[in-house]
Design goal:
mainly alpha; 2 helices; 71% helix; rod-shaped
Length: 93
């Protein structure tokens, strides 16, 4: 099964978390340099919400990947030919 779409979403959500974290750090460490954000508290709140949403989505995608990996393993196990049963030993005469 191809999980590349879900793995790509994982990368997207990680990047969104990093971007939000970077913005928060910038707001907190250099608030003077952020001229267009007159309401700093609101700006930080928006970024915290972005971070949290991406974190929740990342967890959901991780759960989906695990689910589909298990499902794929079960399907492969059902398709595999059964292992031959060991032959019974014959008593010595």
């Amino acid at each position: 099964m191809r999980l590349d779409f879900l793995q790509t979403l994982q990368m997207r959500y990680r990047a969104e978390m990093l971007a939000a974290n970077t913005n928060i750090r910038t707001y907190l460490e250099h608030p003077v340099g952020i001229g267009e954000h007159s309401d700093l508290l609101e700006s930080v709140d928006v970024e915290v919400r972005k971070y949290n949403e991406a974190k929740e989505l990342l967890a959901s995608v991780a759960n989906l990947i695990e689910f589909y990996k298990k499902k794929d393993e079960q399907r492969k196990a059902q398709e595999a030919p059964p292992e031959p049963e060991p032959a019974e030993e014959q008593p010595a005469s």
